[in-house]
Amino acid sequence: MAGTTSTTRGGAAAVRRERVRALRAGPLAAVLTAALVVALTAAVSLGAVDIPPGEVWEAVGRRITGQRPAPGSRDLIVWQLRVPRALLAAVVGAGLGVVGTAVQALVRNPLADPFLLGISSGASLGAVGVIVLGAGLGLELTIGGIAGITVSLAAFLGALAAFSLVWLMARRGGGFSPLRLVLAGIGIGQFLSGLTSYLVLQTGDEQQTRGVLFWLMGSLSGATWSQLAVPAIAVALGMLLLQARARGLNAMLMGDETAAGLGVDVARLRREIFAVTSVLTGVLVAVSGAIGFVGLMVPHVCRMLVGGDHRRLLPLSALTGAVLLVVVDLLARTALDGQEVPIGVVTALLGAPTLLYLLDRRLERN
């Protein structure tokens, strides 16, 4: 009798916590939106040449309303250099947050992300392979350049191939093992990273080698308005598709049999999530390189704040990822005087302790 009462109280407490988290989602979204505006303003204002926020917004307002730009170089710095980079950082961060949330639901493991599952490594191999092959044929297939669509397509195909291989390894024996999926992703990701490093060494052009290596560690340098359209559209569409399947993702967290009992076509939903995450990862890697740990950190932090309901979790992960990567890119660009640090270095310094913390918590629970 006492055990039943204790269980009932525990269930009631869990329900109350979930209600509190649900009520928290709206104000948190408003705070994150405001933080994103502040972060974007700071990203455009600060740099080798500091520009006051008021002047930044004046320059942006003139461009948006079609007025004549103010004379001088500051307008060009704001509109041509810093605004596209800041917006691209927000788009990539939002995409990584959404992809990480979807992948963790797909494998029912909060320690999963595109980087750990080998998806980013496959996308990097595809993009670098096309660049190196193009250089060998005398073609200008630079990342973010004229052939950006070709590089994006190669990155997508590489991501799809890598995740397919990881998926097949995880389903060996007829069942589905989330742990086997993560382990297969780590092993295959390391193998593909080795192939990518080999291809980079075959370029024969020292400057191109340095550029590709810098990009592989994550970089938004050289961002232009032309680069922004494809990832922005891909992230928006991916977000809409995943949001429409939020209830199915919630059901999958309870197990395949329970989800099927609730009317969810688990196999079809997995294929859809598989395709969406592969496309998004390929597009994001093509424009920013392989930025690790964002897809791991963001969903977990949001889950602690608003619970596991993907109807709230997906949009908040997008906002949090956008704020995080804009701030990280600003730090990478301004932390060292006259030298830019690859974004992946900063996210690794933040993400590695987070991963160890998550592992420690899981061990304590077990």
UniProtKB/TrEMBL annotation:
The way this protein sits in the membrane is described as: Multi-pass membrane protein
Keyword list, A-Z: Cell membrane, Membrane, Transmembrane, Transmembrane helix, Transport
- Show the stretches that span the lipid bilayer: 26-49, 86-107, 114-137, 143-169, 181-201, 213-242, 273-301, 313-335, 341-359
Query: InterPro entries annotated for this entry?
Result: ABC_BtuC-like, ABC_transptr_permease_BtuC
SUPFAM superfamilies in alphabetical order: ABC transporter involved in vitamin B12 uptake, BtuC
Q: Which Pfam families match?
A: FecCD
Family membership, please give it: Belongs to the binding-protein-dependent transport system permease family. FecCD subfamily.
Tell me which PANTHER family the record gives: FERRIC ENTEROBACTIN TRANSPORT SYSTEM PERMEASE PROTEIN, PERMEASE OF ABC TRANSPORTER-RELATED
Q: What is this protein called?
A: Iron ABC transporter permease
Species per Swiss-Prot/TrEMBL record: Kitasatospora putterlickiae
User: Where is the organism placed in the taxonomic lineage, from the top?
Assistant: Bacteria, Bacillati, Actinomycetota, Actinomycetes, Kitasatosporales
